[in-house]
Amino acid sequence: MTSYWLLTAVVYVGCLVAPLALVLLIRLWYLTPGLSGRKTPALVLRENTCRVGVLLGSGGHTSEMLALLESMDATRYSPRIYLVTQGDTLSEERTRVWEGQRGQQDGDHARIMLRFVICQLPRARNVGQSFLTAPWSVLQTAYSAAGILWHYRPDLIVCNGPGTCVPVCVIALIYRALWLCPTRTLYVESFARTSTLSLTGRILYPLVDNFVVQWPELQKRYPRALYRGVLV
User: Fold this and answer.
1) Nearest to residue 169, comparing CAs of 196, 202, 146?
2) Distance between CA atoms of 39 and 33, rounded to whole angstroms?
3) Which UniProt keywords apply (predicted)?
4) Which of 86, 100, 166, 203 has the most C-beta neighbours closer than 10 Å?
5) Is 49-227 a CATH 2.60.40.1610 domain?
6) How far apart are CA 230 and CA 188, in angstroms?
7) For every one of its 232 residues, what pLDDT tens digit does the chain have, with 9 covering 90 and above?
8) 57 to each of 40, 86, 134, how far by Cα in Å?
């Protein structure tokens, strides 16, 4: 008798979970531009400002990102949530200096400085780390990113190449699929990539809402990509 009720419970749970899982899979497919072929509609802001998450990384990624943000309206794109990997003190310090300079230029240093926060993420993969242990590091990064995105709920995430971009953008996609957070994702390929995409770029090309390249040769090879000239 116990087995009968256990089997019945399993069947009922399965009948409830299966349709929900199917709906989630269909929504994930629909929200993934590289699979559904859909064009991302314009971002509709809840307010006059846009909460923007910015991923920074060592090896020149931070320099390119800060150069990219130079033309940004600091008042409109606020607050800014900077995501840096643990131990990347140089990127963190450069960001604080850059924000301070922007505040001085805008003539409202104290107010501008209150419009950004720097959050740390575990590295998705350390230099020289074995590929056998890398999945565990990626999961740690994803778990940390999930908490940050849930807390700050950015309208937009901008990234340009660090491996940490992958779990962050995947979490953002899952949150959208679950109707938890409407975050859009924007990937800008590095200026150094003239004819081929980086590994991060190849992974995120079908996943992000907008994919920007800085060389026309790349736009020809990757039709989803947007080309707006050299941005940095």
Assistant:
1) 146
2) 7
3) Endoplasmic reticulum, Membrane, Transmembrane, Transmembrane helix
4) 166
5) no
6) 11
7) 567 666 676 677 667 777 788 888 888 888 888 887 877 766 666 667 899 999 998 878 899 999 999 888 888 888 999 999 998 999 999 999 998 887 766 665 555 556 899 999 998 766 666 666 678 888 999 999 999 999 999 999 999 988 899 999 999 999 999 999 989 999 999 998 989 999 999 999 999 999 999 999 999 999 999 998 888 7
8) 26, 10, 18
SS3 of residue 29 by DSSP: helix
Q: Which amino acid is at 202?
A: R
Question: In angstroms, rounded to a whole number, what is the distance separating the alpha carbons of residues 25 and 150?
Answer: 21
Angle between helices 165-177 and 134-152 (to 10 degrees): 50
Domain ranges of the chain: 49-227
Extract the tokens encoding 163. 């491996």
At 27, the amino acid letter reads R
Length of the chain: 232
Structure tokens at 172: 């953002």
Q: Give the tokens for residue 103.
A: 């505040």
- 2-13 burial, b at 16+ Cβ within 10 Å, e below that, comes to eeeeeeeeeeee
Q: Could you write out the DSSP letters of every residue in 71-89?
A: GS-TTTS-SEEEEEETT-H
